[in-house]
């Protein structure tokens, strides 16, 4: 049997957005190594896991594990890379419907094959299970 | 990051990326992406505790969901 086709990187997967933002639940997904302070940290040497972040947490209840960029800003305000308080504020203003019950972050890893074949598909399914109307992604 | 975004879109969920590495992101062909010009890793949403700026960037990113599709491109804007 022939192997299933893989998406060429020249092909861009694209899901049209059919809703209004005011009626949309937004899920945050980051690769900045964000986690709840109460959760164990990401391994800074390389970590292929992703973590779930409860949607009720505020930025002050989050930590960032990373050794690849300057933390001067996020030490003061995690919203600089993971704007959970700002989305909540936009929801209060009625500009979005709200946030999903869970958000997600990955840490740093150079095990690219495992990321591509295992972590990323698992993460995408977990994001889908949170039933967002749209996803906002941030890097560092 | 774009790899994650592309996987999410493949499951039928619309998404938008805020990136501070536009060249790297564009090479990976994101479904939708916004780059605040000259921002660097560690504050892709702007200055700490600048709620107005952070919300402005978020809304610009989310409004790309409603804009004409430019799959694979990174939209670069100034916020200074």
Descriptive notes:
- The complex is a heterodimer of chains A (140) and B (80).
- With 140 residues, chain A is α/β, with parallel strands linked by helices.
- Chain A has one domain.
- Chain A is 19% helix and 21% strand.
- Chain A is built from 2 helices and 7 strands.
- In chain A, strands 1, 3, 5, 6 and 7 form a 5-stranded mixed beta sheet that branches. In chain A, strands 2-4 form a two-stranded antiparallel ribbon.
- Chain B is α/β, with parallel strands linked by helices and 80 residues long.
- Chain B contains 3 helices and 3 strands.
- A 3-stranded parallel beta sheet of chain B has the order 1-2-3, with helices on both faces.
- In chain B, strand 1 (14-18), helix 2 (22-27) and strand 2 (33-36) form a beta-alpha-beta unit.
- The longest helix of chain B has 13 residues, at 51-63.
- The termini of chain B are far apart.
- Strand 7 (134-138) of chain A pairs parallel with strand 1 of chain B, so a sheet runs across the interface.
Task: Report the end-to-end length of chain A measured between terminal Cα atoms.
Answer: 42 Å
Sheet-strand content of chain A, in percent, reads 15-25%
* Backbone CA Rg of chain A: 16 Å
Averaged pLDDT of chain A: 94
Assembly of the depicted chains: heterodimer
Structural class of chain B, by secondary structure, is alpha/beta
Given as residue ranges, the uncertain stretches of chain A (5+ residues, pLDDT < 50) are none
Count of strand segments of chain B: 3
- Tally the helices of chain B: 3
Q: Name the helix and strand elements of chain A from N-terminus to C-terminus, one letter apiece.
A: EEEEHEEHE
Structural class of chain A: alpha/beta
Q: Largest chain-chain contact? A: A-B, 53 and 48 residues
What general form of chain A does the structure show? globular
Helical amount of chain A: 10-25%
Mean model confidence by pLDDT of chain B: 95
Give the strand order, joined by hyphens, for the main sheet of chain B: 1-2-3
């Amino acid at each position: 049997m022939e192997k299933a086709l893989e998406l060429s990187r020249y092909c861009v997967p694209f899901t049209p957005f059919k809703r209004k933002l005011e009626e949309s639940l937004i899920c945050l997904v980051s690769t900045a190594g964000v986690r709840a302070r109460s959760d164990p940290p990401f391994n800074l040497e390389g970590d292929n896991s992703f973590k779930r972040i409860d949607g009720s947490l505020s930025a002050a209840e989050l930590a960032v594990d990373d050794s690849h960029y300057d933390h001067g800003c996020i030490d003061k305000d995690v919203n600089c890379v993971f704007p959970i308080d700002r989305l909540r504020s936009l929801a209060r203003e009625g500009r979005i419907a709200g946030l999903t019950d869970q958000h997600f972050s990955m840490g740093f890893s150079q095990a690219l094959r495992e990321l591509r074949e295992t972590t990323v598909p698992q993460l995408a399914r977990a994001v889908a299970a949170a039933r967002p109307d749209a996803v906002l992604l941030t890097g560092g | 990051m774009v790899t994650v975004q592309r996987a999410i879109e493949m499951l039928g969920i619309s998404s938008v990326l805020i990136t501070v590495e536009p060249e790297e992101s564009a090479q990976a062909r994101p479904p939708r992406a916004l780059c605040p010009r000259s921002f660097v890793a560690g504050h892709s949403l702007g200055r700490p505790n600048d709620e107005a700026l952070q919300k402005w960037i978020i809304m610009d990113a989310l409004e790309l969901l409603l804009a004409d599709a430019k799959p694979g491109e990174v939209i670069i804007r100034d916020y200074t």
